[in-house]
Structure of GntR family transcriptional regulator:
Amino acid sequence: MPRSPVPQSASPTPSGVKPTKPAGERVDVAQVLRRRIANHDLPPGSKLKEVELSLEFGVPRPRIREALSTLEERGLVERIPNKGAVVMRLDLDQVLAIYEAREALEGLCVRLAAERSPPGYWDDLCVLFGEPMLGYLKAGDFESFLAGHEKLRTRVFTAAKNAVVQGMLDSILERTQMIVRRTIILPGRAERGLEQNRAVLAALQRGDGEEAEQLRKLNLREAKECVREFHKFVI
């Protein structure tokens, strides 16, 4: 009895892997993976498999290796012999070191922003960080609360006009984004952070770079001690 022909698969695809983009559309693989790592869609310890990523993004494996190399350079993944690329897991000492770097860099950034911004540049943010941000806290709307802080950070970068400092901060901030999200729900931390950012904004509005720098550094020193105290929860 003749055998029926066995259907051949066009390309073996791991179960559950779906392309993330329409055919022909170029995707920035490194940027997509950076966002997933920052949001903990890819938590620490996650394995990044070249074959699966190649199929998901519809790009050849050399493109995936290039993206993983970029993530490794930014300290987001590590290459482990016989295991491949794995999302980095930060320990307490590494997180505290990042906060120390942030203190120096963000202090410099707000000072430059105060010195280089035109009159009226901060007016809308001073309004936002008044009743609206307090309202977000009272309502438990942490997404809007964090979005407000992100708006302030972006505006500071724009006013500072220093691409080197911005690039350094971007590289380290994405490594602690989830820690920041966990820290704001600790008792009193979000309220204290809001109070401090209002003071920073007032200094920015006055054009007082030295005061803005000292206030931002104080903010980050307190945040670092908060992380140290509650590290078992936030890391």
In short: Confidence is low (pLDDT under 50) at residues 1-15.
